Amino acid sequence: MGNHKVFVAFMVALILAATGSAGNAAPPIAGQTVTILQGQTATLHAASVHGVAFQWLKNGDKIANATKDFYVVNSPGTYQVMSINSGDCASELSDPINVVVKIPGNIVSADMSILLTSALSSMNLETPFTYTIMIKNNGPSTATSVNVQNRLPGEVAFQQLTAPAMGNAVYTDYNKKITWTLDKLETGQSTSFDYRVKALQYASITNTASVSAAETDPDLANNTASNTIVLLGLTIPNVFTPNGDGVNDTFEIPGLGNYTGNELIVMNRWGSTVYQKKGYNNEWNGEGLNEGTYFYLLKVQQPGSGKWDVYKGYITLLRAKTN
């Protein structure tokens, strides 16, 4: 398969599709800067003789789900496209089309942006963790009636909200929503606040927040932010039956291999250690011990960090009676 280049490099057609536009505009030259008014859209078309699939890019990054032979833009940036032929061979990138969004002189605008981060100190469900929402006004005008909305994902329970340095934030339980409002935010000014939640289950948890203001926002792409964390977690059984039948013969902890380090300590009812192993690999079978209840302390190291989680509980050892 040889390389080919998508003809969009010199065959991009621009169609203005907004109120007040004049319909079809002349095709721009490759590399040309195309200007549209705030609220308008531009439709970029790619033409490739052998192309059967396409991928559009903005500022060098692939645009999710932008895989047709056209793409509608409403935000500023540098756009390119590649095509893929029937032999699954990708073309070179097209020459860029630069899109500029112009704000009419009588419109006051404020580009609000938002960032959502999380700080997880433990993978244990019993340990709350913190989300931080940060907003910024990138200008050019003061933002007023700033409103931040954050509906919590179903996998977490709200714990505590820290009063923000600016504005007022409230949590409503019936819809699990945090609403943060500010009277205004000056050009170039940023502010943030924290709140704590507790995970309800081991899962991949995605949280999303958005920001808006009374003024026209020239770039809506940065008005929403998402944060995803993955809680691996451990579900530790409370009984095992080392009787030689090949079923549940060892103290097996599902998911333990996801952690980079661990240490298991097992004690009897009097607090004496009956088993201890660093780098435990689900091999303890209770050899030499009587039936009964024992107590464990399991330490596991979180992947990618030096932090350790501690699990404590009991395990019952049962053996089948033999004749």
Q: Which of globular, elongated, flat, extended, rod-shaped describes the shape?
A: elongated
Runs in which pLDDT lies below 50 for 5 or more consecutive residues are: 1-29
CATH architecture identity of the largest domain: Sandwich
Whole-number tally of structural domains: 3
InterPro entries: DUF11_rpt (IPR047589), Ig-like_fold (IPR013783), OmcB-like_DUF11 (IPR001434), T9SS_type_B (IPR026341)
Keywords: Signal
Protein name: DUF11 domain-containing protein
Pfam families: CHU_C (PF13585), DUF11 (PF01345)
Brief summary of the model shown:
With 323 residues, this protein is mostly beta strands. It is 1% helix and 48% strand. It holds the Pfam family DUF11.
Task: Characterise this structure.
The protein has 323 residues and is mainly β. It has 3 domains: 8-102, Immunoglobulin-like (Sandwich), CATH 2.60.40.10; 110-230, Immunoglobulin-like; 239-317, Sandwich (Immunoglobulin-like). The protein has one helix at residues 8-11, and strands spanning 13-16, 33-37, 42-45, 51-58, 61-62, 70-73, 77-85, 97-102, 110-119, 129-140, 143-151, 156-161, 168-172, 177-185, 190-199, 204-212, 224-230, 239-240, 261-267, 273-278, 292-301, 308-317. A 5-stranded mixed sheet has the order 2-8-7-4-5, with no helix packed on it. The longest helix has 4 residues, at 8-11. The N and C termini lie far apart (72 Å).
